[in-house]
Automatic annotation (TrEMBL):
Pfam families: HDPD. This is Uncharacterized protein.
Length: 115
């Protein structure tokens, strides 16, 4: 197990539930806007008018969260989380700004949950 993925504890749900505890992340690969900078892991992304992934500025629905750092000068695409949970401490948006509570609600509407 990598050093940054330790187990903090366990919990269980009693009774009948629809959810499962083993939902894997939904990762996708998407085209990025060429030469738009380095996308660090945790950068929230949106789609521009040409359907390319760019850093999220809060003006549109988030498309996902960059999962693996990506240099748009040398790569035409990046791997991003389209659905699932992400580390809240890693999340940023345009310019490296941290997310506000309203931003986190926007992520939840896009089925991305900050933990």
């Amino acid at each position: 197990m990598p050093a940054n993925e330790g187990v903090l504890g366990t919990f269980s749900f009693k009774g009948e539930h629809a959810h499962t505890m083993d939902h894997p992340p939904v990762l996708r690969q998407g085209a990025v806007k060429a030469s738009s900078g380095i996308y660090p892991a945790g950068l929230v992304l949106m789609r521009d008018a040409q359907d390319k992934l760019v850093p999220w500025d809060g003006s549109a629905t988030p498309a996902g969260v960059c999962d693996v750092p990506c240099d748009t000068a040398t790569s035409a695409s990046c791997i991003y989380l389209a659905h699932g949970s992400v580390r809240a401490a890693a999340l940023t948006k345009t310019g490296g700004a941290t997310l506000t509570p309203a931003d986190l609600r926007s992520l939840e509407k896009a089925t991305i949950y900050a933990l």
